[in-house]
Structures are given as structure tokens and as C-alpha cells.
TrEMBL record, chain B:
GO biological process, one term: amino acid transport
Provenance organism: Tardiphaga robiniae
Domain of life: Bacteria
Subcellular location: Cell membrane
Protein name as annotated: Urea ABC transporter permease subunit UrtB
Record key words, sorted: Amino-acid transport, Cell membrane, Membrane, Transmembrane, Transmembrane helix, Transport
Pfam family name, one: BPD_transp_2
Recorded family membership: Belongs to the binding-protein-dependent transport system permease family. LivHM subfamily.
A GO molecular function held by the record: transmembrane transporter activity
Keyword Cytoplasm: no
Automatic annotation (TrEMBL), chain C:
Record keyword Metal-binding present: no
Gene: urtD
One of the record's GO cellular component terms: plasma membrane
Keyword Nucleotide-binding among UniProt keywords: yes
Keywords: ATP-binding, Nucleotide-binding, Transport
MF terms (GO), sorted A to Z: ATP binding; ATP hydrolysis activity
Protein name: ABC transporter ATP-binding protein
Highest rank taxon of the organism: Bacteria
Pfam families noted in UniProt: ABC_tran, BCA_ABC_TP_C
Natural source organism: Tardiphaga robiniae
Amino acid sequence: MINSRFFNRSELLGFLSLLLLLAVILPLFLDVFRLNLVAKYLTYAFVALGLVMCWGYGGILSLGQGVFFGLGGYCMAMFLKLEASSVANTKIQSTPGIPDFMDWNQITSLPMFWKPFHSLTLTIIAILVVPTLLAFIIGAAMFKRRVGGVYFAIITQAIAAIATILIIGQQGYTGGINGMTDLRTLNGWDIRTDHAKVILYFFEVFVLFACIITAQFIRLTKLGRILVAMREQEDRVRFSGYSVANFKIFAFCAAAMFAAIGGAMFTLQIGFMSPSFVGIVPSIEMVIYTAVGGRMSIFGAVYGTLLVNYAKTMLSESFPELWLFGLGGLFIAVVLFFPNGLSGIWRDHVARHIDRLIAMRSSKSKKAWAIKSAADGAPAE
Amino acid sequence: MFGDYSIGDLGAIFAMQGFAGLILFSVYVLMALGLAIIFGQMGVINMAHGEFMILGAYVTWLTSSFFQSHLPSLFSGYFFVAMILAFIASGALGMLVEWGLIRHLYKRPLDTLLATWGLSLILQQAYRSVFGAREVGVELPQWMMGSKQVTDTIEVPINGIFVMVLTLGITMVVAYIMYKSRWGRQVRAVVQNRVMAGAVGINTEKVDRYTFGLGCGIAGIAGSAFTMIGSTGPTSGQLYIVDTFLVVVFGGAASLFGTIASAFTISQAQSTMEFFMSGSMAKVLTLLTIVAILMIRPQGLFALKVRK
Amino acid sequence: MLIGHQPKEFLLAVEGLTVSFDGFKAVNDLSFYVEENEIRVIIGPNGAGKTTVLDLICGKTKATSGSVQFRGTELTKLKENQIVQAGVGRKFQTPSVYDDLTVFENLEISYPRGRSVFGSLMFKRDAAVRERVEEVAEMIFLKDRLNMYADVLSHGQKQWLEIGMLLIQDPDLLMLDEPVAGMSVSERVKTAELLNTIIKNRSVLVIEHDMKFVEDIAHKVTVLHQGQILSEGTMEKVQNDPKVIEVYLGH
């Protein structure tokens, strides 16, 4: 009776147009360089998607998503780096067979925690498990003690700061401020060629849509509704017999896992990973992608990410000074004037008219729409 | 580890390391005081707090340049003028921001956080456009330079002592305003029950605006003091914002005493550890410890048990 | 757990319950017992600690000392959601429903199945759920509003919806905090009727100021004053208790 279909009409429209844009239009009209740029933007869309789950639906604002993005990215980079550091490639080093930055830092054997990254299977497991586990530990510690809202935001921000300082400080193990560079092949397949970049782009789009469908599935289950309910009336949910903390932990872990997948994709696409994607600044920028797209909208997250990053590239190429003003203004404008972001504008100003047209033609107008659109709700807090 | 040092040397090192910690403590306290008012009393997250501080630093720098070229005879006293100007500039900007931005968001704390972050980006870029990307440093008046010999192995810099004395003075003034004055009572009344406070005749909008302005003004003074011990760049404020928030949260957000105690603990822990390990690892360990303690005791060190 | 170690089998046994907030004892050494199928009303002046008592029973506030036994289970050691699962339901003073969900979804969330994270992911809206939701919606006069979002409901309808959400949980002990506050006269009549149907086969603990309403439903009345019991018994007995008259009429 309610939402028995997987996508309602406007969501189906969003899904198909996004699929058309990413899988057909962009690859047809963009050269490899630009397509690779889109691929880079899309890696952030994974993070934004996760933030829709945990911030938009769960009301938990994490300012440390860069940590999970980075963890996923570094796991992938460690595998690629080991492959690039074969004994044959590194025979000029004092210790051949270990990554170059280790050699520069007088490390003479591969550290224990690097060893599993010889295997691609273990690497993929690590990408999925390590960030999620960290999110679980942070989430369990905080949500069980009812820490939420701004305190959670500040603490996740502190964790982002800690992670950056740690990565930069431990350069013998992490490559330091330069990150892990000079990544070449994936199981012998050169990821730097144009051909590889196009294939990786389509792979990324495929994975992104898998994540979108997963997110939509979660949203439509009772769990999705509990997240919405929790954001509005946490106590009511608690006194309906649910452990609120467990649901928050789930949302936070899901967001972390999405972010980590995005990070791993980033490493594959761009060919390096560095602490500049981990810290406070990138983490909070990822939040603005979600806010611009609409914190409650799964497709909005992807569109918002693409748009903000496109604007960033455009503006910082031609007017680097303007970009920070633009970004700062965007933060303020979205919060003050468009709390539901692009999807809110779409819903209030475009979809309403389309619907009225359809309703007029079918003349069987349903009351449900007049009451409220089913897709999204009012902003939280 | 200590084999190379004599007992006397070691004592001197610890004393001087402790003093370095005290200077860091002063900076934390000055920054945290403003935040403790804005976040602790009003519940507003101001991510641009560091930029309000930097505004004070730039005002101080401008004042010192002005005195240097136009009133060289009065140069030794420029700092006191600069401090007042810094307070006025940051406070006025704060009130403007409260009027244009913050007051629309009192019921949405997370959104306030994002909006003030946006503000901080705009201010950073504005500083860069106006003052340039390079860091600027003020010239200290003669009497503030050099250091004081305490014993034959221990000496402490005079500007450090000055900043500490200044911190003490400002803290006492703030404590007086918040806890003893009629106005401080109004602020707390508004925080505890906005509707009721309005009903008994307190102009809540005005209280909000002046409170926010006061917090930002104190940040301006902090920036002013900051120029005594370091140079100022467009992004200097951002370096301290997370630390300062942790100081305030760790101390138990609503408690002024807690803020000071936590600033002391954190700064001493960090400067002591810096002696044993690299600066970055000391910072990581300090932050990790705070985060871990906050996970176990989320209400901070000094918080009242109250009914929700 | 030993069931029946009480002289009489009480559903709820509150003994020596105390909570203090920074030295202020909001509830002080409170003891009372609720029997199966009993309707108990708690009355008392403002600040007597009525809501705090409910908070203590349902785990919202942790007791400083004392015990709350529910069918022989100690509730003070359980978490809120475990207390609910043990069979205690709680309605809040201000209607707390989920504005961004439909009436149907509001009721469905309270349906006692799939309460774990994994369970809620796998939860299926089957015929049993639908029937139960519709049945309850009918009782709370919202059957024709199932697909509406809760934020368009009136204040009284929200109160009913929340009562419905409790009803669908099927608790053995139902705790209601001022269920008719802020309702129109006609809504009050309907609510009294509603309460009379839902109190069958369960015990109810109600806080209420409306004396007419209390007289209508109460089996037994407990009068709280400054965190302690001032008087307890039938409505008639309590009304004639000089101590109660003193507190309500004197100063």
C-alpha cells in the first residue's frame, strides 16, 4: 500500500537520468582526461552517499569521513605500492623489495602490518573491514554513552586531525606528507594507460550504482524508517523497544564503508593517495557535497558532488581566489536558504509541476501528493 | 635517555619545558575563554572562532605599524591600544555575524557548525586578499624583549611572562562578567530558559548578540596576545580551532574553571611529552588521550549532574 | 528470578526508590505496589515528582537507590529498550510521534517484531502486521488517515497516535503521562472511551490533573508531594484526607 515499489516515480527518474549521464553521455562526450576528472569526483560521491545515510537519515554528522576515505585509499595504495616495489624494480635501493619511502627512512624490512597487502583478496577485505571496524569502535564508544550531535561532530573532527598528523609523522610506514605515489599496476595490469582509465571509470560507475541500490534498499526497510524516526524522536524510538545506539552504529559503519570504497576507487583512478584527503578540511568539504545535493537524497548526493567539484575545478583553474569565497558562501547559503539542497529545489519547484501535469492528464489525482511528497522530509534538528 | 644530563640540567630542562607549556596554556585559555562563552553558555558552535582571533592579530599588526611610522615616541605602549582595537574589531564583526547568520540557526546546532565553517573560509580568503599569504610578525617594544634570569640555568622570556599575566587578568575579568555581574546572570538566564527569560523582561535578542560579540571580542584579544609569541598568517586560526574545542569540551562545556583546568592539563601534557618524542607524536598522543577520555566521560571533566 | 516472593503477586513493586539531582531529592524513598489489571492514577501538585517516577520506572532516569520490580525482574538494572521488551510501555507528556513518517509507519515501528538492527533490515510488512496496524488505527480513530504524514494531525490525534503506538506494543504495564492534557472536550470524551477499551487485560499507571477524568478511571489513587507519598487509596478516601486538602488548598 505504501511504497511497495523499489523506486517511486521521481526516484526512478533520478536513477535513470543519473545512469544515462554517467554511463552514456559523459563517456561519449568527454576526453579521457576529463572523464578521469569525473571519475575522481565520483569517488567523493561514495562518501556523500554514506553521509546521506548517517547524517541525512540518522542525524549523525560526522566530520571525519576523510579518515575512512583515506583508510580505504591507503589499503588499496599499499597493495599497489608493494606490487610496484618488486625486487627487480627497486634493486638500486639499499634494501630492495620494499617501498621506496621506507628505504629513504632507513627501514630495512617490511613492517608486519604491510604483509597482508601482498594479496589482492586480503586487500579487498581490508578495504571493507578496517574502516568499518574503526567506525564501529568509535560509534560503539560514543553512541552507547549517548554522545551525539555537535559533540560527535567535534570528536570525529579531532580524529581526522589525529589521523593526518599520524600519517605525516610516521613517514617511514606511510610515505608521509607526499603519500604513496608511483603506483603502476594491478595484478600486472597497467592502470596508468588511457584504456585502463576508461575501464576503471565504468567499473567505478558500476560499483557506485551497486552502492546506490544498497542505500536505497536500506532506506526502504524498516531500518530506514527507524533512522528517520530516531532523528526526530530519539526517546520515542528507545521506548518502543529499540537500542538506538545500535542503529546509529549501523548507520555510521555503513557510511564509513561507502567512504572507504570511494577511497579505494580514488587510489585506482588517480594513482596515488596522500594525507591531504584525510584531514579536517577535505572531511568537511565532503559534507558540503551532501548538503548541496540534499542531505536526504541519495541521487542528490551524487549530483551535488559532481556539481561542487566541477565548480571547484572551473573556479580554481581560472580564479583561484574566488573559489574559497564561493565554497564558503555555499556552506552558508545551503544552510540558510536551501536546507534540502538541490533535491529540495527540484522537489518544490520542478517535480511539483511535473506531477500536476501528470495528475491533470490522468485526472485521477491522488490525495497523497497534496499532503506531502513521500520522497523526502523536512530537515532535521 | 637521561644519561647525558646532570640532575641540575634536567631540572632546568623540565622547568623550561614547563614554562613553554605555560605559554601554550595561556594561548589555549585565551582562545578557549571566548569559546567557553559562545559554546558553553550559548551552545553555538563557532568554527570561525580562530579567524576572529586572527582578525585581532592583524589589527595588532596594523596598530604596531601605525605607531612605528607615525607615533614612534609612544611605541612602547602601542600594545594596549592594539588590544582595545582588536577587541572592538572582532567584537563588532561577531555581532554582525550573529545578526546576519547565527540568530537564524539557534535551533540547528549542526547547521551552525557548517555555516560558521563557511564563514571561516571566507574570512581566510579575505585575509589572504588583503594582507597577503605571507605570515606577518609584529615588532615587540623594547621592554618586552629578552628574558629574565631566574637561576643561572633557568631563564624565561619576558614576552611569555607578559602573555601569562595578560591571560590571568582577562580570565578574571571574564569570570567577573559571567558570574558576578547582572549581565552575566541575564546570559545564564537566557541559556537556561529562553522563553522564561523573555517573559521576565530580558531582551533575549540583545543578550544573544552581545554575548556572541563578547566571545568574539575576547578571541580578538587572544589574537592580539598571540602576536607577542608568534607570527600571523591567514590560516593560523584554523591550526588551533580543533584543539580549542577539545579544551572546552574536555573541561565540561559550561564550566569556566573546567576550561582553565583542561587547558592546563592538555598544554602541560603536550609540552612534557614533546621532550620525550617528536612534536607530532606528542600531539597525536595528547589528542588521542583526550578523545579516549571523552569517550569514557562524555560530559567532560567538570560537569554538573542535572535532570534532562 | 524468584517469582511470587512477595506476600501478594504484584505486577509492579516499587520499593525505597530515591533519585537525587545534585542533592535535591526529586523522589525520596518512595514505595508503592500495582496489581495485575489495576488502574492506578498518580496525582499531586507541580514538582511533586510524578513524571520523575515514570522516568525512573521506564529507565529514562537512573535511580540513586531503591528497586523497581516488574514481575520479579529488577528494572533499575536494565536498559530502556530492555524494559520495553519486558513489557512496560510509556507515553510522554508532549505527544512524541514521528512527523516525517505516515500514521501507518508510526504504528508499524512500534510493532513488537524485528527490533534488532538485523531484524529491522529483514522485517517484512506481512498480513499480520497490516491487520494489526489497521485494527489499532480503528481503535484510535485514525483508520482513514493511515497514509497521512503525522505532522498534519491535530494535537489530539497525535496523542491518540502515540497511545496507539503503545497499544500495538501490547505492554503489560502501560504508563501514561497526562493523556488528556491540551485536548478539547469532545476529544477528552473519546480518549476516556479509548482508555477504557485499552486498559483491559493490563495494568495502567496514569498521571493526570483532570479530576473528573481521574474519578472516571481510577481504581486507586496515589498522591505525591515533594517526592513522597502523601496519601494512597480510593478516590473517595484520598479526597477526604486532611493532608491532601492541606497540600491542595493551603500553602
